[in-house]
Design goal:
There is one protein chain. This protein is mostly helical and 95 residues long. The protein has a domain at 5-42: Histone, subunit A (Orthogonal Bundle). It has 3 helices and 2 strands, in the order H-H-H-E-E. It has a two-stranded antiparallel ribbon with strand order 1-2. Strand 1 (83-84) and strand 2 form a beta hairpin.
Protein backbone atom coordinates (compact mmCIF):
# COMPACT_ATOMS: atom_id res chain seq x y z
CA UNK A 1 0.00 0.00 0.00
CA UNK A 2 1.54 3.31 -1.02
CA UNK A 3 0.44 6.90 -1.24
CA UNK A 4 1.20 9.24 -4.12
CA UNK A 5 2.08 12.92 -4.02
CA UNK A 6 -1.46 14.04 -4.92
CA UNK A 7 -2.93 12.16 -1.95
CA UNK A 8 -0.31 13.65 0.37
CA UNK A 9 -1.11 17.15 -0.89
CA UNK A 10 -4.83 16.50 -0.35
CA UNK A 11 -4.19 15.33 3.21
CA UNK A 12 -1.94 18.33 3.84
CA UNK A 13 -4.68 20.65 2.62
CA UNK A 14 -7.25 19.03 4.92
CA UNK A 15 -4.86 19.26 7.87
CA UNK A 16 -3.90 22.85 6.94
CA UNK A 17 -0.23 21.87 6.58
CA UNK A 18 2.28 23.36 4.18
CA UNK A 19 5.40 21.51 2.99
CA UNK A 20 8.24 22.67 0.79
CA UNK A 21 9.51 20.26 -1.91
CA UNK A 22 12.13 18.53 0.26
CA UNK A 23 9.85 18.13 3.27
CA UNK A 24 7.07 16.91 0.99
CA UNK A 25 9.22 14.04 -0.29
CA UNK A 26 10.36 13.20 3.24
CA UNK A 27 6.76 13.24 4.52
CA UNK A 28 5.64 11.04 1.60
CA UNK A 29 8.32 8.48 2.49
CA UNK A 30 7.40 8.54 6.18
CA UNK A 31 3.68 8.20 5.42
CA UNK A 32 4.32 5.22 3.16
CA UNK A 33 6.43 3.55 5.87
CA UNK A 34 3.57 4.00 8.37
CA UNK A 35 1.00 2.61 5.94
CA UNK A 36 3.24 -0.39 5.15
CA UNK A 37 3.59 -1.12 8.86
CA UNK A 38 -0.19 -0.95 9.36
CA UNK A 39 -0.61 -3.27 6.37
CA UNK A 40 1.73 -5.77 8.05
CA UNK A 41 -0.41 -5.62 11.19
CA UNK A 42 -3.60 -6.28 9.22
CA UNK A 43 -2.09 -9.53 7.93
CA UNK A 44 -1.76 -11.01 11.44
CA UNK A 45 -4.15 -13.77 12.50
CA UNK A 46 -6.10 -12.45 15.49
CA UNK A 47 -8.94 -14.98 15.58
CA UNK A 48 -8.09 -16.30 19.09
CA UNK A 49 -7.11 -12.93 20.56
CA UNK A 50 -9.68 -11.33 22.83
CA UNK A 51 -10.17 -7.59 22.42
CA UNK A 52 -8.49 -5.39 25.01
CA UNK A 53 -11.17 -3.37 26.75
CA UNK A 54 -9.23 -2.11 29.78
CA UNK A 55 -5.50 -1.88 30.39
CA UNK A 56 -5.92 -2.95 34.00
CA UNK A 57 -8.02 -5.51 35.84
CA UNK A 58 -8.78 -2.96 38.55
CA UNK A 59 -12.41 -1.88 38.63
CA UNK A 60 -13.70 1.29 40.30
CA UNK A 61 -10.66 2.07 42.43
CA UNK A 62 -11.77 5.68 42.95
CA UNK A 63 -12.90 6.97 46.30
CA UNK A 64 -16.59 7.68 46.78
CA UNK A 65 -17.57 11.23 45.87
CA UNK A 66 -18.90 12.80 49.05
CA UNK A 67 -19.70 16.51 49.24
CA UNK A 68 -18.54 18.30 52.36
CA UNK A 69 -17.37 21.80 53.26
CA UNK A 70 -13.75 22.02 54.35
CA UNK A 71 -13.69 25.82 54.74
CA UNK A 72 -16.32 27.67 56.70
CA UNK A 73 -18.08 30.68 55.22
CA UNK A 74 -16.27 33.10 57.54
CA UNK A 75 -12.85 31.56 56.91
CA UNK A 76 -13.44 31.76 53.17
CA UNK A 77 -14.04 35.51 53.38
CA UNK A 78 -11.07 36.24 55.68
CA UNK A 79 -8.52 36.91 52.91
CA UNK A 80 -10.93 38.49 50.44
CA UNK A 81 -9.63 41.87 49.25
CA UNK A 82 -13.20 43.23 49.19
CA UNK A 83 -16.26 41.76 50.82
CA UNK A 84 -19.76 42.85 51.69
CA UNK A 85 -21.10 41.09 54.79
CA UNK A 86 -21.54 37.54 53.42
CA UNK A 87 -20.33 37.95 49.80
CA UNK A 88 -17.20 38.63 47.77
CA UNK A 89 -17.17 42.02 46.04
CA UNK A 90 -15.90 41.89 42.47
CA UNK A 91 -15.67 44.49 39.69
CA UNK A 92 -18.81 44.92 37.61
CA UNK A 93 -18.74 42.71 34.50
CA UNK A 94 -22.02 43.53 32.74
CA UNK A 95 -23.74 46.88 32.31
Amino acid sequence: MSTDLATLRGLAHLARLEFDATKEQQMLGDLNKILDWVDQLSQLDTTDVEPLVHLSQEINVLRPDEAHNTVSHQNGLLNAPRKDSDYFRVPKVLD
